[in-house]
Amino acid sequence: MLKYVPSLTDIVMEEIPGKVTLALEISNCRGNCTGCHSPFLKEDIGEELTPAVLDRLIDDNFGINCVLLLGEGRDPEAVRSIASYLRGAHPGLERAVYSGRNEVEDDFFELFDYVKVGPYIPERGPLNNRNTNQRLYHHREDITSKFWRK
């Protein structure tokens, strides 16, 4: 089961370059990032993210062109299922996932248009820091540099 935190659901413009993104905070995080900005997401909190819930969120947020799972939770099959559902039911929307793992399974690059990998390391910074260990891929192409100011 995949759970999200409704009160943290938001439209964001900076997480995925050039996209108006519906961002869903996923609970049951399995990461252990030092300096985590949301340690409460390690807890089993929130509501189940089902296809019906996802449809309602998409309908309620006209104008989005991407759906982002901020985390994977502890049920990889549920993540895959949601991504597959989005592809079939909402083919005009791009799909994104932020993983705190250093690597994800190959099929994530087929299921999601955007895949972010890497735990947050305070001394390396987030994606907008040129020294970051984190990477954002768009169809397997590393686009992390799009976050760096010229």
How would you summarize this macromolecular structure in one to three sentences?
Helix content is 19%, strand content 21%.
Could you give the topology of this structure?
Blueprint: E1 3-4, E2 10-12, E3 21-25, E4 47-48, H1 51-60, E5 66-70, H2 76-89, E6 94-98, H3 108-111, E7 114-117, E8 135-138, E9 141-142
Parallel strand pairs: 3-5, 5-6, 6-7
Antiparallel strand pairs: 1-4, 2-3, 7-8, 8-9
Give a structural overview.
The chain is α/β, with parallel strands linked by helices and 150 residues long. The chain is globular. The relative contact order is 0.17. Strand 5, helix 2 and strand 6 form a beta-alpha-beta unit. The strands form two sheets. A seven-stranded mixed sheet has the order 2-3-5-6-7-8-9. Strands 1-4 form a two-stranded antiparallel ribbon. It has helices at residues 51-60, 76-89, 108-111, and strands at 3-4, 10-12, 21-25, 47-48, 66-70, 94-98, 114-117, 135-138, 141-142.
